[in-house]
Design brief:
359 residues, mainly alpha, 86% helix
């Protein structure tokens, strides 16, 4: 290797490393913005044609639509969730401080397990002082958790704002970026890498459709339960279920709060119904619908989808929901291409060696 070539490679490596270090704090936002843009690209193209192919106007309109759909409702939900969590913790503290250690009368009325729970609580009443002490000690960590939850939601809002900001430029320059990626993939690895690039886009769309479709289904099922139980603000609560379904323990915060409100109002039967509906209907939708939706729009097996989603979250955080299945899909496609090419090369090699073997 000539000194000139060595210098070129060294400069290129330094530039790549420098760019990676500068952009590393924004990798998650950039990847998530890319995911959103890839999924909603057909909608952007329709706006682009309607606005006379003006890139900036179409990108601005698309960004404003996403802001109205994502950011504005999340701001209201974040404020409401934080206030409700703190109020709930304070209310539980008051109940514990005023408690005489005896279980509530309605506890016996719980089907199947009510009498056993009532007997267990009465057994604990013999050590009432110690139980109250432990319960009060647990309240403060719960309060800190509620405040931390509010801070986490606020941080998420800032990240969503950054995603929308980046998304505007990805929409505006998306056609040029796509062309550059295709040329770069072709120069890097030929047709195989071009196919992998298209596979990455289709997998991201499939995962996004699965997540959004599951969230919509959970919100619809939750809305039905809220309306049947007579919970006020059912539509707003269903919207909260839609957004919080992206978080593993998100929906129970909504339907659990609705069940607690029903209990406060004295509707113990409806409160039990809300808990059962949340456990058996709302939260169970995620277990079977998401893999089905993703597998119908992607060739990736359900097992790899599940492993990719869970492993991606552990490795990359929230954005790993999309990155995990995408990486596994690319790895599977690359392995399949390699094995196919190897099996195709084998007969050719045998034919080339055949004359020597016969001579």
């Amino acid at each position: 290797m000539t000194p000139r070539r060595t210098a070129q490679l060294a400069i290129t490596a330094v530039l790549i490393l420098g760019c990676a270090l500068v952009l590393s704090p924004f990798f998650a936002a950039i990847l998530f913005a890319g995911t959103v843009c890839v999924t909603t690209w057909p909608m952007y193209q329709a706006l682009h044609r309607r606005f006379g192919r003006r890139d900036g106007l179409a990108a601005l309109t698309m960004t404003l639509l996403l802001t109205a759909v994502l950011l504005v409702p999340m701001v209201g939900l974040a404020a409401s969730l934080t206030d409700s969590a703190i109020t709930l913790v304070d209310y539980v503290r008051g109940l514990i401080e005023q408690s005489d250690g005896q279980p509530p009368h309605w506890l016996k009325d719980i089907p199947l397990v009510g009498h056993d729970i009532d007997a267990y609580v009465r057994k604990l009443a013999h050590s009432q002082t110690e139980v109250r002490k432990l319960a009060l000690e647990a309240i403060e960590p719960a309060r800190k958790f509620a405040l931390g939850l509010g801070g986490m939601v606020g941080q998420g809002l800032l990240q969503i704002s950054l995603v929308l900001f980046i998304g505007f430029f990805l929409y505006r320059d998306g056609a040029r970026i796509e062309a550059q990626l295709e040329v770069g993939a072709a120069r890097l690895g030929g047709p195989v890498w071009g196919d992998l690039l298209h596979l990455a886009g289709s997998t991201v769309k499939a995962v996004m459709i699965g997540i959004v479709g599951t969230a919509a289904a959970q919100a619809l099922v939750a809305l039905m339960g809220f309306l049947v139980a007579g919970v006020p603000g059912a539509l707003l609560l269903a919207a909260g279920v839609f957004f919080l379904s992206l978080v593993p323990v998100g929906p129970p915060l909504i339907w659990g709060g609705a069940a607690f409100w029903l209990y406060q109002q004295g509707d113990n039967g409806w409160a039990i119904f809300m808990v059962l509906w949340g456990l058996l209907a709302i939260s169970s939708v995620d277990n079977f619908l998401k893999p089905i939706l993703i597998s119908r729009t992607s060739s990736l097996p359900i097992l790899l989808i599940a492993l990719g989603a869970f492993g991606g979250v552990l490795a990359f955080g929230f954005i790993g929901i999309f990155l995990g299945p995408t990486f596994l899909a690319l790895g599977q496609a690359l392995f399949t291409s390699w094995t196919v090419s190897q099996s195709a090369d084998a007969p050719a090699a045998e034919l080339a060696e055949a004359p020597e073997g016969r001579s």
